[in-house]
């Protein structure tokens, strides 16, 4: 399952508080986790000069409720350079 | 912005781990507005002196510590590690404890595998008079940190209380958030629980970033280093979780503190308390280079080790030895020569006493005496031979008055670091000399010296290729194609060199090769291995082990973790005991002559029966052989000099063939001419032409005639450079030597301005001493010569050995010529 682009509203502290993805809306309902995961920069045929962006990706795990009031954990990836958010499959 | 001090920072002196030099890390910290910077390499202080020097230059406080592994109660169990930071302004007690605990971790008596120390031994090193002299940081990899991450808070509490009992007032909890996955080591949860634990047990907590990189991008080099360390390709390796352990600016560290506290059960003010306690510990660990390390202050063996009584004055003893030396070396000298000798000796002694270096000279003299007592040939080289005191003590066989050598090239009141006296010994006996020095001075006063080997292209390509999982054949081909290059040169020269055309073509076609060279450049110049310096020996007082950490060398003797370039700042006495094969060859030949010919040696060699340098038992004293033997020079002029010291290379054979040396000064000049400075300055041809009478002798300036007569007006030696600079700029020889040492392509433009201005302002009798045209010519030669020449003292020392060597015609066996006549 591939990632989907997400629209994310942030709190003043920079935490996601509202998420829209795949036509659904979610409201943050708990403290999110944020971490950085390694990228396998050495894999494939990377030819250009490497940079810090190639090294790691910013991950968020946000306890949320959907429109029906169901509790779900939303997994997001944030590309800071493009300020782009993506919704990830739960096991990503 | 309030400053933040990073207390846990590994430099590239943690091999296969760190990626930045101490200087780069200090500069980055200073740019962030830090008032202090710490270095905490693994199991050593390899970069500590450079770190302190960089802090002094940056105007911030140095903090020094080390990350140490702990031995496990269970030999197969996890060992864990802690970081130890030395306290400052405690008269060196923190530094001394740190040195000793590191040495203990490396001790062959207690060590199994990699360096480690038993936690219960730490108080013996890290406390003095019941007071902590260092602080132990219990971080993510400590037993406490591991218990917390495993969720066993009861065990963590028990372990932290144990540490507090073990080192009351000397432990803190180190809180780190590397933005790792939730629940893993260095995650937000881990950091928050560590902070809560510290609060619960009432142990202070500090915030660090457990720094390994200067910037996040360095993690690429870090991955390759990890791969090289584990000998596993990146694809098969568990890579580091992310690239977060970099030297983050204060704003980010404050945000990290707030996030950790937010994730904990503590009130929000705990973030400020965490940052404050971090700065409080930092301040406690600010080292005072003068007070804690006696920075640059000489630390030499005590008088009693040199055989002196407690009330003996080293200056008087040194003076007495020199006077005795005069009667040995100048027993046939004229009264005018003796007057010059005494005048020079008084001048040199005044400088030595001004600097307080009497014991240094006595120590070196004692070492050389003891080497000779072992029956090992020893011969000083380098600028030390400029000194009359060195000559009179018998350390050097070169008479500085005869050769008009300049003491200031070796030592002056402007050069306050301990000088270098290098001693050549027989290569076959070098290790015997090491062992004798350690035995005679004591293992607590003498060590060998370490040396870092660094990544160059070939090794970097092999390690990066392994990391990328490239074919062995491909790695071999690329490594062999680039073996002469520095690791950061490869891409630059691919397009330039015809012999690399095939590799350049392959690189354009293969993205893997471009990635390989990118990685190779990232490894350039990083230290990769510690080895024993090929000749350095450190001597110090009985507390030497409180000044430097030591670890076993390959030959079993202990070696200091410091680099040779650190020694001036540490203030220790470094003696270079160089292994010279020719000295072994000479020793063997002399021994064979005595064994075969015995009392008939002189006759067998066709020497005069009354030759004073041949003892009745056939022992030949080469250093007493006169320098005027035509047969020796004829042998050299023939260019059949294979096997002769310093003059056997094809280039040198060509030069001696052209120069046709016929006096000792010629041999000295020949050796000095074969250097980049004189060659670049186009000084070889003029000297040869003048020596053969094909070219008239001229001087850059008539004022230079007295001191350039020995080279017929051609600038050959450092001594010429010194005297020209001193005369043109109206400064002392000591100041001129400072300028010589500072000469480099980068400094030349500023020096040129200074030189020209000073020379133009030199007035005598109302007239300028140097015209603009003369200044132009003189500066051209000065700049061309630079600092790439030999000092005459060094060239003369080598010439002494060259003169003493010869070749048996047709035999291929090297024996000393002894005026070209003692042959087998």
In short:
The complex is a heterodimer of chains A (92) and B (824). Chain A has strands at 4-10, 16-21, 24-28, 33-38, 56-66, 71-79, 84-88. Chain A is mainly β and 92 residues long.
Account of the 3D structure:
The complex is a heterodimer of chains A (92) and B (824). Chain A is mainly β and 92 residues long. Chain A has one domain. Helices cover 0% and strands 53% of the residues of chain A. Chain A has no helices and seven strands. Chain A has strands at residues 4-10, 16-21, 24-28, 33-38, 56-66, 71-79, 84-88. Chain A has a six-stranded antiparallel beta barrel. In chain A, a hairpin with a 2-residue loop joins β2 (16-21) and β3 (24-28). The radius of gyration of chain A is 14 Å and the shape is elongated. The termini of chain A are close together. The mean pLDDT of chain A is 86. Chain B has 824 residues and is an alpha/beta fold. Among the domains of chain B are: 303-441, no CATH class; 453-530, Arc Repressor Mutant, subunit A (Orthogonal Bundle), CATH 1.10.10; 584-648 and 668-675 and 793-824, no CATH class; 679-789, no CATH class. Helices cover 46% and strands 11% of the residues of chain B. In chain B, the strands form five sheets. Chain B has a seven-stranded mixed beta sheet. A six-stranded mixed beta sheet of chain B has the order 1-2-3-6-7-8. A two-stranded antiparallel ribbon of chain B has the order 4-5.
Which properties best describe this structure?
heterodimer; A: 92 residues; mainly beta; six-stranded antiparallel beta barrel; 7 strands; 53% strand; elongated; B: 824 residues; alpha/beta; Arc Repressor Mutant, subunit A; seven-stranded mixed beta sheet; 19 strands; 46% helix; 11% strand
Shape of chain B: globular
What spatial order of strands do you see in the largest sheet of chain B?
9-10-15-12-11-14-13
Q: Give the distance, in angstroms, between the N- and C-terminal Cα atoms of chain B.
A: 81 Å
Work out the number of β strands of chain A: 7
- Classify the oligomer: heterodimer
Mean pLDDT of chain A: 86
User: Structurally, how many domains make up the residues of chain A?
Assistant: 1
- How would you classify the helix and strand content of chain A by structural class? mainly beta
Helices of chain B, by number, come to: 36
Radius of gyration of chain B: 31 Å
Q: Would you tell me the overall average pLDDT of chain B?
A: 91
Beta content of chain A comes to over 45%
In terms of DSSP E residues, the strand content of chain B is 5-15%
Biggest chain contact: A-B, 21 and 28 residues
- Measured as a percent range, the helix fraction of chain B is 40-55%
């Amino acid at each position: 399952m591939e990632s989907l682009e997400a629209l994310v509203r942030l709190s003043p502290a920079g935490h996601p508080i509202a998420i829209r993805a795949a036509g659904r809306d979610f409201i943050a309902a708990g403290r999110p986790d944020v971490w950085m995961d390694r990228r396998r920069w050495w894999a494939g045929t990377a030819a250009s000069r490497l940079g810090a962006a190639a090294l790691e990706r910013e991950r968020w795990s946000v306890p949320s409720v959907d429109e029906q009031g169901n509790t779900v954990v939303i997994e997001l990836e944030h590309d800071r350079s493009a300020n782009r958010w993506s919704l990830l499959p739960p096991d990503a | 912005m309030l400053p933040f001090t990073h207390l846990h920072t590994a430099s590239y002196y943690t091999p296969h781990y760190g990626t930045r030099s101490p200087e780069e890390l200090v500069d980055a910290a200073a740019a962030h507005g830090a008032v202090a910077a710490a270095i905490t390499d693994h199991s050593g202080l390899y970069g500590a002196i450079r770190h302190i020097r960089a802090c002094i230059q940056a105007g911030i406080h140095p903090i020094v510590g080390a990350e140490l592994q702990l031995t496990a109660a269970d030999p197969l169990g996890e060992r864990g590690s802690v970081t130890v930071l030395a306290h400052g302004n405690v008269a060196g007690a923190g530094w001394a404890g740190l040195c000793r605990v590191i040495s203990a971790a490396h001790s062959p008596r207690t060590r199994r595998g990699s360096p480690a120390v038993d936690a219960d031994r730490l108080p013996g090193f890290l406390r003095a008079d019941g007071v902590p002299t260092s602080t132990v940081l219990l971080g993510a990899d400590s037993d406490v940190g591991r218990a917390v991450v495993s969720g066993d808070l009861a065990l963590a509490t028990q372990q932290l209380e144990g540490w507090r009992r073990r080192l009351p007032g000397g432990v803190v909890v180190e809180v780190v958030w590397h933005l790792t996955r939730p629940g893993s080591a260095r995650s937000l949860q881990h950091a928050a629980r560590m902070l809560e634990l510290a609060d619960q047990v009432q142990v202070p907590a500090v915030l660090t970033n457990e720094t390994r990189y200067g910037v996040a991008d360095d993690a690429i080099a870090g991955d390759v280093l990890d791969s090289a360390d584990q000998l596993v390709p990146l694809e098969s390796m568990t890579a580091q979780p992310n690239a977060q352990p970099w030297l983050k600016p204060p704003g980010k560290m404050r945000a990290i503190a707030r996030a950790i506290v937010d994730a904990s059960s503590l009130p929000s003010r705990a973030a400020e308390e965490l940052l404050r306690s971090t700065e409080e510990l930092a301040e406690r660990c600010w080292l005072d280079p003068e007070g804690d390390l006696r920075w640059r202050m000489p630390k030499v063996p005590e008088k009693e080790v040199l055989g002196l009584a407690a009330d003996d004055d080293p200056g008087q003893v040194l003076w007495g030895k020199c006077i005795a030396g005069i009667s040995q070396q100048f027993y046939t000298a004229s009264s005018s020569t003796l007057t010059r000798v005494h005048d020079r000796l008084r001048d040199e002694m005044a400088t030595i006493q001004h600097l307080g270096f009497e014991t240094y000279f006595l120590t070196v003299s004692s070492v050389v005496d003891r080497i000779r007592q072992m029956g090992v040939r020893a011969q000083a080289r380098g600028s030390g031979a400029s000194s009359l005191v060195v000559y009179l003590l018998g350390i050097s066989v070169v008479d500085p008055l005869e050769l008009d050598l300049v003491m200031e090239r070796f030592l002056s009141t402007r050069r306050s670091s301990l000088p270098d006296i290098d001693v050549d010994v027989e290569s076959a006996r070098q290790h015997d000399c090491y062992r004798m020095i350690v035995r005679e001075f004591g293992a607590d006063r003498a060590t060998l010296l370490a040396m870092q080997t660094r990544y160059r292209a070939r090794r970097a390509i092999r390690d990066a290729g392994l990391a990328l999982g490239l074919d062995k054949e491909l790695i071999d081909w690329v490594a062999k194609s680039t073996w002469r290059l520095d690791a950061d040169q490869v891409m630059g020269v691919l397009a330039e060199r015809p012999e690399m055309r095939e590799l350049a073509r392959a690189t354009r076609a293969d993205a893997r090769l471009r990635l390989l060279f990118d990685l190779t450049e990232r490894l350039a110049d990083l230290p990769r291995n510690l080895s024993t310096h090929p000749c350095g020996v450190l001597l110090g007082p009985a507390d030497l082990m409180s000044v430097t950490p030591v670890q076993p060398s390959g030959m079993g003797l202990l070696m200091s973790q410091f680099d040779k370039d650190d020694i001036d700042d540490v203030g220790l006495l470094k003696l270079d005991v160089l292994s010279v094969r020719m000295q072994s060859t000479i020793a063997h030949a002399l021994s064979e002559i005595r064994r075969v010919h015995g009392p008939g040696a002189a006759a067998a060699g066709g020497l005069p029966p009354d030759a004073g340098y041949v003892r009745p038992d056939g022992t030949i004293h080469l250093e007493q052989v006169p320098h005027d033997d035509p047969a020796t020079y004829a042998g050299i002029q023939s260019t059949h000099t294979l096997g002769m010291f310093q003059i056997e290379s094809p280039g040198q054979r060509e030069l001696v063939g052209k120069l046709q040396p016929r006096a000792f000064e010629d041999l000295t000049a020949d050796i000095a001419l074969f250097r980049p400075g004189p060659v670049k300055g186009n000084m070889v041809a003029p000297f040869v032409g003048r020596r053969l009478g094909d070219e008239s002798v001229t001087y850059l300036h008539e004022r230079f005639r007295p001191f350039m007569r020995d080279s017929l007006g051609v600038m050959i030696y450092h001594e010429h450079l010194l005297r020209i600079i001193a005369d043109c700029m109206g400064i002392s020889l000591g100041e001129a030597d400072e300028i010589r040492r500072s000469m480099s392509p980068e400094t030349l433009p500023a020096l040129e301005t200074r030189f020209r201005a000073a020379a133009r302002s030199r007035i005598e009798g109302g007239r300028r001493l140097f015209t603009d045209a003369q200044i132009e010519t003189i500066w051209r030669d000065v700049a061309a010569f630079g600092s790439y020449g030999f000092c005459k003292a060094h060239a003369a020392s080598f010439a002494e050995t060259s003169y003493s060597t010869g070749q048996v015609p047709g035999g291929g066996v090297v024996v000393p010529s002894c005026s070209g006549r003692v042959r087998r």
